[in-house]
Amino acid sequence: MHLTYLDSNSWLIEIADQKILLDPWLEGDLVFGNAGWFFRGEKLEKRTIPEDIDLILLSQGLEDHAHPPTLKQLDRNIPVLGSPSAAKVAKELEYTTVTALDHQEKFNLGDTVEIKAVPGSPIGPQLVENGYIVKNIATGHSLYYEPHGYHSETLKEDAPVDVVITPIVTLKLFQFLPFIQGQKSAIDACQMLQPQVILPTAAGGDVKFDGILTAVLSAEGTIADFQALLTKNNLSTRVIDPKPGDRFTVELKDRALA
């Protein structure tokens, strides 16, 4: 398995000879509802759009996951798999092959990769977006992704999972309301899934944020703090802090030996 961290929530996953572009933000700024005064993300390093993408995988319909300027730059013939709200965005942008995946539904990419949607982040009172488990059918190695740190109890059905990508740093609004859950939530995921490796997402990368929302956001915890929590909870999971833009190999043991 090869991974490339592309800042914020964006990843390139290479698994079983398939290239999956996950929640891509690669072009332009990140703005919600054209309200740059409220929140704006700016990339400090240009990220090249990967070539030969087999699938675009979207966890949510919000701009930081289904980023319209990026999706407008990508080839509309690349298949898109996403939550129902993300699939709606892709259809509006005239992608030719779009599949919406509800929780617990599965999708096969060729005959080598299985993708399962699991409950992810709650967005408002009636919408729960997607997390995903991506599995190499031949080897059984699998990866779990959830970008806001909301980990459903149903994940126990899919344990063990080899790689977890989820927030490790907690972001709070007004210092008390978790906006992105890290630390304890990530430990809960590790206890349920017993991964060999965990990688942080959401709060990292070569990006700069401004706007009035940033004034009421605060971060809690570090990767070192999280490593200490793993040790305290007798978890052997390794933390990898990826360098943005660098492709790297995730060395995994056979599950029977892990």
Structure description:
The protein has 258 residues and is an alpha/beta fold. It has one domain: 4-Layer Sandwich (Metallo-beta-lactamase, Chain A), CATH 3.60.15. Helices cover 14% and strands 33% of the residues. The chain is built from four helices and 20 strands. It has helices spanning 68-73, 84-92, 184-193, 223-232; strands spanning 2-5, 11-15, 18-22, 30-31, 40-43, 55-58, 80-82, 98-100, 106-109, 113-122, 128-136, 142-145, 163-165, 170-173, 177-180, 197-199, 207-210, 217-220, 238-239, 247-249. The longest helix has 10 residues, at 184-193. It is globular, with a radius of gyration of 17 Å. The two termini are 16 Å apart. The mean pLDDT is 92.
Rg over C-alpha atoms, rounded to the nearest angstrom: 17 Å
CATH class: Alpha Beta
Which regions have little confidence, pLDDT < 50, spanning 5+ residues?
none
CATH architecture: 4-Layer Sandwich
- Helix percentage: 10-25%
Count of DSSP E strands?
Answer: 20
Find the CATH topology: Metallo-beta-lactamase, Chain A
Strand order of the largest sheet: 8-7-6-3-2-1-20
Brief sketch in words of this structure:
This protein has 258 residues and is an alpha/beta fold.
Layout of helices and strands, plus pairs?
Blueprint: E1 2-5, E2 11-15, E3 18-22, E4 30-31, E5 40-43, E6 55-58, H1 68-73, E7 80-82, H2 84-92, E8 98-100, E9 106-109, E10 113-122, E11 128-136, E12 142-145, E13 163-165, E14 170-173, E15 177-180, H3 184-193, E16 197-199, E17 207-210, E18 217-220, H4 223-232, E19 238-239, E20 247-249
Parallel strand pairs: 3-6, 6-7, 7-8, 12-13, 13-16, 16-19
Antiparallel strand pairs: 1-2, 1-20, 2-3, 4-5, 5-17, 9-10, 10-11, 11-12, 14-15, 14-18
